[in-house]
Amino acid sequence: MGKLVIVGTVAFDAIETPFGKTDKILGGAATFIGLSASHFNVDAAAVSVVGGDFPQEYLDLLSNKNIDISGIEIVKEGKTFFWSGRYHNDMNSRDTLVTELNTLADFNPVVPQEHRNAEVVMLGNLHPIVQLSVLEQMEEKPKLVILDTMNFWMDCALDDLHKVIKKIDVITINDEEARQLTGEYSLLVAARKIHEMGPKYVVIKKGEHGALLFNNDNVFYAPALPLEEVFDPTGAGDTFAGGFAGYIAKTGDTSFENMKNAVIYGSTLASFCVEKFGTERMQNLTEGEVHKRLLQFKQLTQFEIELA
Question: Cα-flanking dihedrals φ and ψ of residue 154, to 5°?
Fold first, then answer.
C-alpha cells in the first residue's frame, strides 16, 4: 500500500450559488483531497490545523475513510479557517466574501513520523513557505511531489513560490493561473516555461473544459464529463488533485502513460464533487458509481478514426 501525505486546509466554507446557499459546512483543500484519495486504498495522512470549534464528527469522517488525522493539529482556544464565496451564474467565476485565516495564520505543519518516508506528497494550496517546510521534514526523497497553488500566492509570495516550484515534480493549476505565472497566453508556451522552472509534469485545469497534461513534448487532453447540473464547483480542483495523487500512490508508476490514467481518475472524481454542496457528494460516493462513470469517460473519449 503506497503512502501519501496530504497537506492543506481543513476548513469551514459558506457558499452561495445560483442553486442556493449554505451556512458553515465542511471544506478545505486537504479535506477534498483526502476524500478523493480515499478511493484508492492508500495509506494517507492529512497535515493541517483546526480550532476548538471544529466538530469531532468531521474528524471522524476523515478517520473513517482511513485517513490518518494525527497530523491535524487542534488549537483548542483557536478558530478554524473560514472562507465564504458567491458564484456567478456561469459557475466559473466567483467573489470571495470572507476569508478568516484564524489558526491557519500561525500554522507550522508537522508530518507524522510514520509518513515521513511517503512515496507521494500532495502539497495542497497553502503559503509556499508552509509547503516547503513539509518537504524539509521528509526523511526520504518522495517518488513524486505534487503542488497545487493559486494566483493569490503569485501576487504576494512569488519568490517563495518559485523556491517550492523548483523542488516539485508535478504542478496542478488552472489556465488563468498558468498564464499569470508565465506571462504567456498560449498554454503550450506557458507549460514549457513552467517546465523550465522545475516540474517535469504540468497539469493545467480548465474547469468544465477538462484538463491538459504536459511532459516535455508530450501532451494529453482529458475532457470534462458533460453534466446536467453543477451545484457547487468548490473543491473540484482539490478533488481532481486527490484522485490524481491517490492513483499514483496506489500504482507507484510515475510514467507519462500512467499519469494519463491519473488525470482521468481525477476528472472522474471531480465530476461527482460538483453535484452537491461542499463535501456532501464525496462523503458517500461508492466504488460502483465511480466505476460506472469511468466507463462513461471511456465511451466519451475512445473511437476508431476511419482514414479516408
Answer: -65, -30
The contacts of residue 273 (CB under 8 Å, 6+ apart) are: 32, 36, 235, 236, 239, 279, 281, 282
The SS3 call for residue 11 is strand
| Residues 133 and 108: beta-carbon distance below 8 Å | yes
Phi then psi dihedrals of residue 200, to 5 deg: -75, -35
DSSP tag of 225: P
Question: β-pairing, 201-205 with 170-174?
Answer: parallel
Note the pLDDT tens digit of each residue in 17-63.
998 999 999 999 999 999 999 999 999 999 999 999 999 999 999 99
Among 195, 215, 308, 304, which Cα is nearest to 259's? 215
Q: Is the pTM of the predicted complex or chain greater than 0.85?
A: yes
- What's the start-to-end Cα distance of the chain, in Å? 48
| CA–CA distance, 179 with 105 (Å, rounded to integer) | 28
| Percent above pLDDT 70 for the chain | 100
Q: Is the CB of residue 148 less than 8 Å from the CB of residue 237?
A: yes
User: Which three three-digit cell numbers place residue 267?
Assistant: 476528472
Q: How many CB atoms lie within 10 A of CB 91?
A: 18
Find the catalytic residue in 13, 68, 232, 238. 238
Q: Is the dihedral of CA 245, 3, 124, 286 positive or negative?
A: positive
43 is catalytic: no
Provide the residue count of the chain.
308
